[in-house]
Amino acid sequence: MGLVTSPGESTILIVRKDIVSWCRPVEALEQVVVSGGAGVSIEIFSEIPPLSDEPGLAGDVLNLLIAAGMVCRLLPASAFKGFKTAVYHQQSPDLVSRSLAADLLADQEQPYALEKMLSRVQQVQDISRAMEVILYCLELDSGSVSRGELDLSRIETDEPSPKLFSSELGTSLVAESLRQQAESRLGLAQQLLVLQHILLDCSATARVPPGVLDSILSTFLPRTTVMVHCYNVLSWLCQVPACTPPSSIQELGLRQLAVLRLSDKSTHITYTNRKDKNTSLLELFLNGPGRLVRGVVGECRGEDCWALALSPMINMTAQLLWPRCATPTFLNFLLRSSQHAIVQNYCRMLSTWCEWHPYARKFLLGVAHLNMGEEEKALDLFISGAGGIPQDQFLTQDLLELQGSTPADLTVEYFLKVVSLLEQFPCPDLVISLTETARAVTPQDHKERATLAYILFSYHLKLGHNEDAYAAMMSNPDLSRRKDSLRQFLVTLFDRGELSQLASYPYTDMIDDVESIIESRARSADLSVNNYYDFLYSFHVSKENFRKAAQVMYECGTRLGVELCNFDGLKKQVHAYLSCINCLYLVNKKYQWLIKPCSTPSSSPKRFLGGEEKMEEVENLGMEVVELESIKRELVLSQARLKLTVIAGTTQGNLPASPGLTPAETVGFLTTSNLYISAIQICEEFSLPLTGVIEALASRAVRIANARPQEKSAAWSWLAENRPGGVDIQGDCAVTATWNLLEHLVTSKEKATQTVLHRVTVERLFSLGCALPPWLVFGYKKRDCAELIRLYHGQGNLEPATDLALEYLEAVLGQGGEYFGLEHSLQANKRPAWVPWTVLDRLLIELSENSNIPAFAKCLKRLDAGVEKYLSVVDRVSRDMLVCSG
Q1: What is the DSSP string of 692-730?
Q2: pTM of this prediction?
Q3: Which of 548, 544, 546 is nearest to 518 (CA)?
Q4: Which residues contact 34 (CB under 8 A, 6 or more apart)?
Q5: pLDDT tens track for 746-759
Q6: Which residues, 6 or more positions from 143, have their beta carbon under 8 angstroms from its beta carbon?
């Protein structure tokens, strides 16, 4: 072992084999405590202003300190260790010291030592004043840092901080020196407290004046008890080890500071990466905000920093850690240190006695509980902490930096910051509880009530509390936020599929907003998964607003026809149009119409095809009125396209069913697919000629009559799709059923005074070389016999034409007129009869020119005879008519 000194400094090192010890300077009070007063005179107090000028008072203080040291020697070493442990576990120092004093007085083994201690007390001339001086020296409340007179944050400049005691060794020296000083002062406070109880119990023996006893009982005993508490906390802070939190915890802490919108406060904390080094909380503090003390002390270049700088650094650091310090540096450090277990213990140790900034500690403890997974405890503490606003300056200004002109503003900002803090953790129920508390204490006219209502709405909605979310939304005084909340409410319940509950709310004055929001979502969402239109439809129907319901479904059907061109889209379109028509039937006939925007032109409204700008004013496309009948036509077209798509799925692959198909094109596809009834329906709805459909069916009837048995059997599949009036076509076989279908369509769809369908059927059958079925000839004879004769004649069928002409002449003469639709025969008292002489003349000429053919010669003879007979009857009837008229 050896001693090492530093040239020019008072530094002394004791070097041993495995360790190096540093001899530090100690203050007078600590020197007396450590030495027990042995070899100490009043000269030691020469630098203490109250004592240096009054030797008598200095002697009283020295004697009182020696008496307190004698108390320590009278008690076993474990007594004061147990004293410290008991206070750590929140036992009252007053009770513990009273018990120790009672034990000491009851001890009969050292009567002379007790008398010696009391005799030392008797040497004190003014106990009250000496006790006051000692407590003044122990109390760190009077320091410039502790009183808040020296603002350390203003010491910081852009220049690098002084490096005095900034190394790892220097920091540990300062920390250990402070720990030793705190331990010495804690021991002195404990000894002084026991001594006070001994003086109270032995006042007669020690000849203590009654006034002094009253002062001890009313003043010095409570103050000393507080000193024991304070130094017990300070000693614990100097020894408690600090753990290096994981990077995730550090990042979480930074996020929390960010949401609290707190400034740096010069509290940057650097953790050691050495696994073999245990860093105490005090060393962590000295490397963080405690480094500001070095800026006050300075560099001490060329001076004895060991003697001049160490003691001030220890003293100012102790003041920063002092529980009654007016500077919030240490609390800000604890808030940012992520040492949550230490914070909990620190707040526990101060909870029973410390009346300084209690609400700030509640907030600090709440943050610690929050990070330790005890959210319910944290919530209670946060709510309790709100009671300190605005009177607790540590909480209001230093920790949270709240801004506001009134206590209500500060309180609301406090709750908003705490809500932001809670939002960093998975505890939405606690956010709701805290927000409800905040709303309860916020004035009705406060601007932040809208924010609180929105927070409450958001978390109720997140947890599925739809009723509470709706109530919070409707109570929001800010209309814009209420509308934002409504949009979020609607979208969320849509995504969850809670449509019935969504439609059940009254929405009071927000009905228009509901419609606008859902319509906007419906128009922007994918139609393949879009149920917004369905909800709007049911919503309007439940409100008995059938026109709006019809408008919604018509818009849906129109979009489906353009954007979803597949089988599912066609089915949805048909359903939409059906719903639209049903709703329009429920309104007054005067209002059975809808409005839709005019379709956009295919060309640019501003430029020509070549790119030149149009000079004339662009016309507004305006709106288009859509009546019920138009919607019905669109429904028929959609149903036909749907049926076409179903048939195409099994027969022709991907048959075009796009919205670009015109009604005429749709009829063509339907006819090709053998859907004749649907084709006829489209033609009737859109006023298209039926001739194409009838010709196609006639051709199909002829082909199927000549088809193979397999094809005839397959014909039943498409015949089943052609059910006029929902009734199956009768027929023993497919051929008969096809002809029956043709007969039904020709006879039922031909207008009374027209023969268009009959003519095209006859022409198509003639072109295919097929004989005319009896029903066709029978019907044609009734409608226009002359035209049928002309068709026979045109096809070269002179014999049938002759027979038909002769039948018609006989009918005019009175035999079989009912078969030709004649109301009466050729009679004098009836209207004149008409005979198609042009047709008969052409037929006679054709027969005359081909009279070389025996069959035609016979036809010519028969027709001539028939005409002669008719003419003779006409002559007689004409004469009778003249007689009757004369």
Answers
A1: HHHHHHHHHHHHHHTS-HHHHHHHHHHHHH--GGG-PPP
A2: 0.73
A3: 548
A4: 26, 184
A5: 999 999 888 999 99
A6: 315, 316, 319, 322
